[in-house]
Amino acid sequence: MKQKKLIALLVVLMLVLTGCGGSGGGSSSADSKTLVIAIQDEIEGTDIQQIGWDNVVHQLIYSPLVTYNDDLSKIEPCFAESYEVSDDGLEITFHLFKDSKFANGDPLTAESVKKSVERMKEISEYAGDVEAIEKIEVVDETTVKYFLSKPAPYMWASLTSNFGGVVNADKAKDLGKDEFNRAAVGNGPYMVKDWQAGSQIVLKKNPNYRTANPDVKNQEVGNFDEIIIRFIPDEFTRVSELEAGNVDVIYDVPAASVKNLQDNPDVTTYDYKQAGATYMMMQTDAAPLNDIKIREAINIGLDRDALADALNQIVSPLYGFLSEAQAGYSADKEAELAKQYKHDSEKAKALLKEAGYEDSDNDGYVDKNGKKLTIEYASPTDKASSKAAAPVIQEQLKSIGIDLQIKEYEQAYIKQLVKENDYQMASRNYVWNDADILYYVFTEASGYPWHDAAVTKTLEKARYTNDAKKRQKEYEAFHDAIFAKMPAVSLFADNYCIATGSNIKGLIVTNDGRSVFNDVTKE
């Protein structure tokens, strides 16, 4: 009898050891039913309607009714089984699956969607994204209809994002804002199990989840019982944890580590671009930058290719104000601008001469009436690519005779300087997968002092143009209008990288950086 028990014990021990062995990337982070992810920043909260920025945690907790496909060319069903838009763009109808539920098992009906949107309009800082929805009608238990005040194609960016996920508004009311923000109830593939502040958040599988997303094979519950998201601020620690097999997926791979990880057979990397632009805003109200010739000289005095080389290709040169990771981007317009504003030192010097600036004392800098052309540049300490770019830009502008003085501040302070119009030239950037972000950068709606009637007109027309091709043309017209005034020059789009162990299969990373985990498995 004891011998049989001993044999049985040995069999169990062998099974346990086999189950913990790992394979592929050599991950020892957990068994095949647990996925471990490392990210840089701890979340603000889990309630998508109370926070100002999101990340992969929220991608797992929430599911929007619709989603962009991977190249932003089409809007497809997601949590909704299907949807329709009226010909005039004023009515959007969503059809839910029968017996849809929140992650905690509460019924998720058309009324739930209505309450979620109403709550978003009431408390979210992104309420303006859905301001065009003037009425929501519950047609029946599984059908909800939005009535818009005017066509609002810009709204799709929000509806397809994590902010378009359905929040259990009744549960939020019962728990109160603070408690709900600790463990919000959504409709995504995972739900909050435990949030250990300063360390990690553990998500467990939502047994009620399903999706109509045609781009994934697994349209039901996730393949992992739990997903652990660890908060690891130090970028090289995230890399070493991946290489050691302690985590399965890392975000925000540092540029210095990308090549090594790409060459590592035990690692798979996924690249995508900033859905936006990093640019320099310029003072147009006071000398010397109130002279457009000087602003034009700066634009063509910059060698964006050389800048990208100096930054080890962690950025991609950008001449316009939209990247390929944004809806509304035009490759033709970007190519046109690249040709029109290509690097040309001699032409830049000629423009400075037309503005009255020449190097009269042969010190390498141009001057006017004995005063050197000096510009103060506000550069961020907390955006790595922009910080690294500043001294390169300084040297490039020095080559055409401009004395660029770098002043470093945190991004939030630079933003405030620009709002107060208390700057000469400042590093700025934005991220949003729709071109409508330009409306909140270059019009009076931005809260910034610079705006122009012709620029505002093109952006207002674009945000209410339903046809995608016509809308793209409007953003081409925007570029014509803004370059006629040139209050800013674009520099680059950041190149981002996600890395996984080679034993992690099925991850989808879209061109604007969304991570889709439905088909992910760990071998």
Describe this structure as you would to a colleague:
This protein is an alpha+beta fold and about 525 residues long. Among the domains are: about 65-170, Dipeptide-binding Protein, domain 1; about 275-495, Dipeptide-binding Protein, Domain 3 (Dipeptide-binding Protein, domain 3, Roll), CATH 3.10.105.10. It is built from 17 helices and 24 strands. Helix 9 runs antiparallel to helix 12 and helix 16 (about 455-465) runs antiparallel to helix 17. The longest helix is centred in the first third of the chain and has 18 residues, at about 1-20. The two termini are about 40 Å apart. The model is unreliable at about 1-25 (pLDDT under 50).
Overall radius of gyration: 26 Å
Sheet with most strands: 12 strands, mixed
Give unreliable regions as ranges: 1-27
Count the strands? 24
| Number of continuous helical runs | 17
The CATH architecture of the domain at 276-495 can be named as Roll
Break the fold down into its secondary structure elements and pairings.
Blueprint: H1 2-19, E1 34-39, H2 56-61, E2 66-68, E3 75-77, E4 80-85, E5 91-96, H3 110-123, E6 133-140, E7 143-148, H4 156-159, H5 169-175, H6 177-182, E8 190-196, E9 200-205, E10 226-231, H7 235-243, E11 249-250, H8 255-263, E12 267-273, E13 276-282, H9 292-301, H10 304-310, E14 315-317, H11 331-340, H12 345-354, E15 367-368, E16 371-372, E17 374-380, H13 384-398, E18 403-409, H14 411-419, E19 425-431, H15 439-442, H16 453-463, H17 468-485, E20 488-501, E21 504-505, E22 508-509, E23 515-516, E24 521-522
Parallel strand pairs: 1-10, 1-11, 17-18, 17-19
Antiparallel strand pairs: 2-3, 4-5, 5-7, 6-7, 8-9, 9-10, 11-20, 12-20, 13-19, 13-20, 14-20, 15-16, 21-24, 22-23
Helix pairs in contact: 9-12, 16-17
